[in-house]
């Protein structure tokens, strides 16, 4: 019906186009109505344009000047707050006379607190990039996030920071001779005539420029700040001309301009220049802001265009209204019907029929044509047939009777009497390993290409078939063939051709699953279900495979699953300690042990998911959310795309462990980490002796409290639990692999006999004697079973 409506409207429009528009009476009516409708609008538009332009332009210039003044005050306030903060820091006791004689190397805790204070001060103002502390004593020391002894060639440039006054602005050369940054410098102690150090606050150039760019609110022009020597200390230039700032500075110097604003012409373009002063602690700065007049008056241009557009729209509306009015005056319904009927049913005679009744008759005729087209389209059942097969495969017709399904199959053109059904599933693999050629968004394209390949090959081999596309990089094929026909050879030939074609054209690997055959339509759904189960038992390697269910045994024959908990524990411990170089070997060992009983997909996928879950638990325990660490990626989804042990190892290292380690190292104090590593090594070497938190802290050169806190943060468990775990693990090895008495084992691992029994039972749930007995009996049973 909708198609018929469209045809009818288009037909009427075609007839209207054939009206004789050159008739003089129509022309006179049209011109008269057009003049009456458009002249008032044009006059109003012209008056608004000329009267509004001047007032708007003056207002825009005033508004621009006010904006520059307000934003300059904001910049001045930002620098003033920074000066106030620097003065307040300089009088803190932390930076008093006590620093003149303190030995910062021996008193590590004091050094660490100073570093933390500098890092904290660094975040107190958005313009601060770095806060450094220079101390000039027997040793010349520079503090930031950590301290360092300065070399002889570096001392002179830092010594200069003590010579220019109590607090002043200057250029700080930093650690690199090639870099120079604007800096606020305050000597310490505050107000001292003989300072021994200075707090050096380096300004973040990018943020300072962003603040400076607010003086050019239109994104064009240039802004810069001059010191008392008329040297440019900050400059933001968006003019794309390196000579602009120099030319404007020269204009200021040559004419000694003291006005708050003036106009400056450069390269045939006029700029509005605004001047002002910024009062600093040691001198006055001058800011200069230059914005193109075209940018300032851009809203005026927009207003002008809006006025013109409104005027033009009014004119167009007047033309349209004039056309409709003149058309109604000139062309009655009778003439319209006469023209319409002459082209459809021949010459129209005045028979007294109602014109709208004739329109209704024409409408019914067009509707009949539309219904005819719809009936023809309904005869095309290909899509309906494909939809039926998809629903059949997905089990939506399980409640239907076999007879009803047979009838529906026949209605779609299938021959099903004395026929059987067999199914194939073609699964594509290697997309993850081919990310240089494909992305995750190419899955539907790859599936579509595979379906086309299977369609062409099936057309050469089978008489009745249907290709089904699945959303998981799989394509199914349902084949209907006469009962008693030996189709196995054709199926194998088809599978090999599909593998060769996909390997050659798409360069991906293929897993072809072949179901058993059935003579029942209702069981077609179960054919695909069985193939889905057996696909998970494929060999976990990125290569072509054929899984023929007729040649497979039972699902009960799957090898038992053994998870390598010991290797997982080593991996987690290596991650905690940051030993990245050994993790790759451990992960490869983990995967090899996981695949020891057969490299089928269900075992490998389940094992690596468990390993990733354990690593994710460690990430969460460290206070890091995996969603933020991996930028919202679904890592479990990526796991399903990996198909080789080598790719798994690479994926774990590059996608999981390295990002976590980098984030962790950024947060962790490296000195504490080295101390904990030293204590862990000390425990592993001396667990059998009388060892305590206090003795280890003394050996490492720190306090027991600091060691306990750092040990918990880095290792993940507290000191005594880690020592107990080491001793119990060694005791378990001696119980299982030696004939030593339990008393001797207790002394060997550093416990008294009575306390050893209690702590072992608390950790393992059973006494050591029973633990040895149970494992000996288990080994005997395994030996008897193997024999």
From TrEMBL:
TM annotation in the entry: 30-52, 302-325
Keyword Aminoacyl-tRNA synthetase attributed: no
Keyword Transcription regulation: yes
Ranges where the HTH araC/xylS-type domain occurs: 677-774
Domain of life: Bacteria
Pfam families recorded: HTH_18 (PF12833)
Coiled-coil annotated residue ranges, if any: none
Alphabetical keyword list: DNA-binding, Membrane, Transcription, Transcription regulation, Transmembrane, Transmembrane helix
Protein's name according to its UniProt entry: Helix-turn-helix domain-containing protein
Organism listed in the record: Metabacillus rhizosphaerae
